[in-house]
Deoxycytidylate deaminase (Marinoscillum luteum), 160 residues
Amino acid sequence: MDRPAFDDIFMELAVNLAKKSHCIKRHVGAVLTKDTRIISIGYNGPPAGTHNCDEEYPETGCPRDSKGGCSLAIHAEQNAILYAVKNKATVEGSTLYVTLSPCLACARIIYTAGIVKVIYLNSYAAHKGIEQDEGVDFLSKFGVTMEKYQGQISHVTDLI
């Protein structure tokens, strides 16, 4: 029997979690792990207890903030980190698997939380049509290991 690597398992889970997102613009999933164990998961969307963007604003998505970003969205990696901290899990020294490389704001949170490695599937810069992955650059500069996922996801029907 061919056994999948943990990187493949965790990235596949992140891709499947992205399918839970209610954002109409982009679906992103994240898995936070430590020592081959999952300590938290997350996907992008509005804070728990508010409304889902695809239900409240099905045509346009949520209103934009002053910088053009979603006014309600919490990014997948933020959700994973917040949930872990809320449940008193230690995130320091952990690895984050995410379907979209972190934006600069998320990179700052990842660094401050003590996450030591990020494995990402797709480029935030390519998604946004900008030249550089500022979050990847920031994390790399300050010693967080950054890896573009190169493995194989075998049970996912489509990548979001």
User: Anything to note?
Assistant: The two ends are 29 Å apart (CA to CA). The chain is about 30% helix and 20% strand.
